[in-house]
Specification:
Number of strands: 13
Helix content: 10-25%
Distance between the termini: 32 Å
Mean pLDDT: 91
Strand content: 25-35%
Low-confidence stretches: none
Number of helices: 5
Structural class: alpha+beta
Strand order of the largest sheet: 5-8-3-2-10-9
Order of helices and strands: EHEHEHEEEHEEEEEHEE
Number of domains: 1
Largest sheet: 6 strands, antiparallel
Length: 221
């Protein structure tokens, strides 16, 4: 079975909550921050608009996603999702077949004229929709895990999915500006469970983040 290491970025407070509660927040598809989510089809034609509205309703209804990134070295991810590098990225090992890897496209998808009459073409189009976002989001290197909201834990109007055998926490990456929360007992417990700890710092010659090799500068929970 192919396993992929993917990362979830959080402000420190929410990363610690995720670790302690052993769960990840699931975002209902209808509440995602991009109005073009699952609407990557060119709907200039009225007939396409009509069936696309129905298809979008089927995708959105009762479903949520957990978004991950393929790597933790992109500084924009730390800036946008991890409290300006003061947060944490959690690394999970997940079976590849459970993840949708996002493809980034310049123009909206133009369905063929036969798509409304061909089950195969409709399935192919649906797969494209599930995997496509505009190129402006490419820095995220996103993988998505689809979750039915009925199977999630609901708390304070939010949805959560528990860590389990297919979402294994394997790595904790501290942001360059992270400040210790004095959770050393938790860190010891995680290490005993096989979780690795990494500290990010800016590269000396490029524009990515890279592991901090100096022991004296590595962070702790």
């Amino acid at each position: 079975m192919d396993i992929v290491r993917v990362y979830k970025f959080y402000p420190a407070k929410w990363a610690l909550a995720a670790i302690k509660n052993q769960r990840l927040k699931v975002s209902p598809i209808g509440e995602l921050n991009d109005p073009f989510e699952y609407l990557s089809v060119d709907v200039g034609r009225r007939d396409v608009r009509k069936w696309m509205q129905k298809l979008h309703g089927l995708i959105v209804g009762g479903n949520g996603i957990i978004s991950f990134s393929r790597a933790w070295n992109e500084p924009l991810m730390w800036a946008h999702y991890a409290d300006n590098h003061k947060g944490i990225a959690l690394g999970f090992d997940i079976p590849k077949h459970m993840l949708f890897e996002i493809n980034y496209i310049e123009n909206r998808i133009k369905p063929t004229i036969e798509v409304d009459h061909s089950e195969q073409e409709m399935e192919e189009l649906l797969d494209l929709i599930l995997r496509s976002k505009h190129k402006n989001w490419e820095y995220e290197g996103e993988f998505r895990l689809l979750r039915n909201l009925k199977n999630c834990v609901k708390a304070d109007q939010l949805y959560f999915s528990k860590f389990n055998e297919v979402t294994l926490l394997k790595e904790v990456v501290f942001g360059d500006r992270y400040e210790s929360q004095r959770e050393l007992q938790l860190q010891k417990k995680l290490k005993n469970n096989g979780v690795d700890f990494t500290t990010a710092r800016p590269e000396f010659t490029g524009f990515k983040m890279t592991p901090q090799k100096l022991e004296s500068k590595r962070k702790n929970l």
